[in-house]
Specification:
By secondary structure, this protein is mainly alpha-helical. The chain has 16 helices and two strands.
């Protein structure tokens, strides 16, 4: 078994060296599928770097220790986000194809990653992390990435900035909150950005496509180590980096068709990210109603087992089944967003209504499951 692993990693290293060489991507360039080259290089890098990072984390005791809030029972290495970040950055830089917006995503993501890494290594207050996320969002705005679907009026730019901050910081934290089961946040990020990549290929936005391909490759290359049973965790650095990058890509993408429709441009990323949005809204309302969260600071710091994945387990699903269910739900809604590329404004309304009905059904199921769990606890 050890010999097979060594052969595998030698092959992966060989592919990395070949693809990273000056002529490594020539075939892909000639056939106009440069994005596929970006995907493979990022995939192989993440797959190769992850075991190295895992050993470093174990060596220096950078571990996630189990407690009453955690599902795992053994200490798990906590630097998985570093592997994804390195694979992503190395690939983007090696591709040698940049735009102002692309640099904005890279620099903003780096800031969020570094704040998360400090938190993983030494601990950082929720307030400082939040301010770091706002600063990173202001940076991508300075590089030309912001919500642009606000109707034209006097305060249009200010409102666009505020909505961009709310959206990016909200999704960043929603992804971090969602990182509660093996492979969940990583796989969810892959599914979301695959939908974005498909639309990006349709619209021909090359820098957006490169970022999506690098992100998917890095996350997918890491996923085998992070899927249940996970041998390494994302950590706050990885989860917030994933969330920030996904949110930035959602705003960076051009989601409208030739006859631009603000409704389609809004509905497309909302559908792709709807599972994250739903979980954040539902848990926030539930916590305020139950009195477990009374202010914004508590909202940032509270960690409970009341997220969508936890509630699915309460319904009787295993952890792996709950994760796969969320993948499937995200993919189904994301495919709806993909067809909007050639749709009409009415189609966007109908798909948003459909998504709302789906989440209402999920909500009813979760409420029923919670009541059954409460009754069983009372009987025992």
């Amino acid at each position: 078994m050890k010999n097979l692993k060594r052969i595998y990693y030698v092959v992966i290293l060989g592919l990395i060296l070949y693809l990273g060489s000056p002529r490594g991507g020539t075939w892909f360039y000639i056939h106009n599928i440069r994005w596929l080259y970006v995907f493979f290089l990022s995939l192989f890098l993440a797959n190769f770097i992850t075991p190295i990072v895992q050993k470093i984390a174990a060596r220096f005791k950078i571990l996630d220790y189990p407690d009453e809030r955690k599902i795992h029972r053994q200490p798990i290495p906590l630097l998985g986000g570093l592997a994804i970040y390195l694979a992503f950055i190395i690939t983007v830089v090696r591709n040698l194809n940049f735009s102002r917006e692309l640099w904005g995503v890279v620099l903003g993501g780096t800031i969020v990653f570094l704040f998360g890494l400090i938190d993983d290594l030494r601990g950082l207050s929720a307030k400082i992390r939040f301010l770091g996320q706002i600063f990173a969002t202001l940076l991508i705005i300075a590089f030309g990435i912001r919500v642009t679907v606000i109707p034209h009026w006097t305060g249009e730019y200010i409102l666009e900035v505020l909505v961009t901050i709310l959206g990016v910081v909200g999704i960043t934290n929603a992804m971090n909150f969602f990182d509660g089961m093996d492979g969940l946040a990583t796989g969810l990020s892959v599914v979301c950005v695959v939908s974005m990549l498909i639309v990006g290929i349709q619209t021909g936005e090359k820098w957006f496509i490169f970022l999506c391909a690098a992100f998917i490759g890095a996350s997918f290359g890491f996923l085998p180590y992070n899927f249940k049973p996970a041998s390494i965790f994302l950590g706050d650095a990885g989860a917030t980096f994933l969330g920030f990058t996904v949110a930035s890509l959602a705003i960076m993408g051009s989601w409208g068709q030739v006859g631009y429709s603000p409704m389609i441009a809004t509905a497309t990323p909302v559908l792709i990210l709807s599972v994250l949005i739903f979980d954040m809204v539902y848990t926030t309302i539930s916590r305020i109603k139950n009195g477990t969260v009374c202010n914004f600071r508590q909202w940032l710091e509270y960690t409970g087992k009341d997220h969508l994945h936890h509630r699915l387990v309460h319904l009787g699903l295993t952890e792996k089944e709950a994760v796969i269910f969320i993948y499937a739900l995200t993919l189904a809604l994301g495919l709806g967003a993909v067809v909007l590329r050639n749709g009409k404004t009415l189609d966007s309304f109908l798909l948003l209504i459909q998504a709302t009905i789906i989440f209402l059904i999920v909500t009813v199921l979760m409420i029923v499951g919670r009541k059954e769990v409460s009754e069983k606890e009372k009987q025992s």
